[in-house]
Specification:
OB fold (Dihydrolipoamide Acetyltransferase, E2P), Rossmann fold, 2 domains, binds adenosine-5'-triphosphate, 6-stranded antiparallel β-sheet, single chain, alpha+beta, cell membrane, 6-stranded mixed β-sheet
């Protein structure tokens, strides 16, 4: 049993509070990813779980035991850093076994654990090399291997792939997913990378300014964000936002006038109560959700600034001086991109509605 709970967790540096009372439940075996803009407190939260930072308020439990006062080495966790933190003068084998040997672990057991970790990570052939004789990806494997040999209840990863080039990152991302599947242990992972968060996580925690904005499965956050911040943060390229004003409320929805789009109107379905007529709102639409003109519920006449062709897909950047800049993703956009002006449609069931404070209206 090695789930994890955070209850009203607070962190202060001096008089400056940077984590404002975070609550979180992580189930045994779950893969949880912390995302959020730079400085939102992701690393600090992870370091508090690891015991590398004191907890200023609240409680952290691992496997049902409150660990606030428990030393890092006794928390049953292992942390993998972005910098790898390998001992440069030791061979890979020594790097892997060092911690266990220092703790007086029996040699036969240490050897067994090191062999197993090397097999899991496919680094058996590298055991006699030193870190400087390894590639970045191989070093990262050794760093992960050092965590595996400790047989932790919880793995913590702090941006482990950010020093690798794009191709290696993809490879290592797949490796980490495989590792999670094979070991079945709880993992908590901090990243800036959208794709890592979307592909690795069972559950994503979106942080902003030391608060949790939303917790959910990756697609839940992508398709059903609680507010404009989460909507804008998740997804690449980013969601488009269009300023609007409500002009009529009807049963099951509201009609919104898009104020910078030549008065185009869109009837947005709502399950809950409609905002008052005249309310300032915004409409969110993902780049891949626009349709060709005439296919949806609101047509926008836009000017194309530029197009990027990526092969399988293209991004059209559009906007005029008076309108919001838009990014439109099309799998068939080569022909669109050659036009200077085009009409795109917003299908009403793809439109997300936010009030003027950025809260989602559903
Ligand atoms: P990044 O994505 O840039 O790594 P992060 O979300 O991991 O950012 P943290 O490193 O947790 O953010 O930092 C959160 C806030 O706490 C930042 O404003 C940072 O400046 C501040 N902070 C971190 N460590 C300390 C410290 N030792 N003393 C004072 N302030 C700190």
């Amino acid at each position: 049993m090695a789930g994890l709970t955070l209850r009203s967790v607070v962190k202060r540096f001096g008089s400056f509070e940077i984590i404002h009372g975070v609550d979180l439940d992580v189930a045994d075996g779950e893969f949880v990813v912390f995302v959020g803009p730079s400085g939102c407190g992701k690393s600090t939260l992870l370091r508090m779980i690891a015991g590398l930072e004191d907890i200023s308020g609240g409680e952290i439990s691992i496997g049902g035991q409150v660990v606030n006062e428990v030393e890092p080495a006794d928390r049953g966790i292992a942390m993998v850093f972005q910098s790898y933190a390998l001992y440069p003068h030791m061979t890979v084998e020594r790097n892997l076994s060092f911690g266990l040997r220092m703790n007086g672990n029996p040699k036969a057991d240490t050897d067994r654990r090191v062999t197993r970790a090397a097999e899991i990570l496919r680094i058996t052939d590298l055991m006699q090399r030193r870190p400087k004789q390894l590639s970045g990806g191989q070093r990262q494997r050794v760093a992960i291997g050092r965590a595996i040999v400790r047989d932790p209840q919880v793995f913590l990863f702090d941006e482990p792939l950010s020093n690798l080039d794009a191709e290696l990152r993809v490879q290592m991302r797949v490796e980490i997913a495989r590792l999670h599947r094979e070991l079945g242990v709880t993992m908590i992972y901090v990243t800036h990378d959208q794709t890592e968060a979307m592909t690795l996580a069972d559950k994503i925690v979106v942080l902003r300014g030391g608060n949790v904005e939303q917790v959910g499965r990756p697609l839940e956050l992508y398709e059903d964000p609680a507010n404009r911040f989460v909507a804008g943060f998740m997804g690449s390229p980013k969601m488009n936002f269009l300023a609007g004003r409500t002009v009529a409320a009807e049963a099951g929805g509201v009609t919104v006038e898009l104020v910078n789009q030549k008065g185009a109107r869109l009837a947005v379905p709502l399950a809950g109560p409609a905002p008052a007529t005249g309310a300032e709102v915004s409409i969110g639409i993902r780049p891949e959700h626009f349709g060709p003109g005439g296919s949806g519920d609101a047509d926008l006449a836009i000017e194309v600034d530029m197009a990027e062709h990526l092969g399988a897909t293209s991004y059209v950047y559009a906007g005029t001086a008076s309108a919001e800049p838009l990014i439109i993703q099309r799998d068939d956009s080569r022909q669109w991109a050659e036009e200077r002006q085009l009409t795109v449609a917003i299908p009403r069931h793809r439109a997300l509605l936010f009030d003027k404070d950025g809260q989602r209206l559903r």
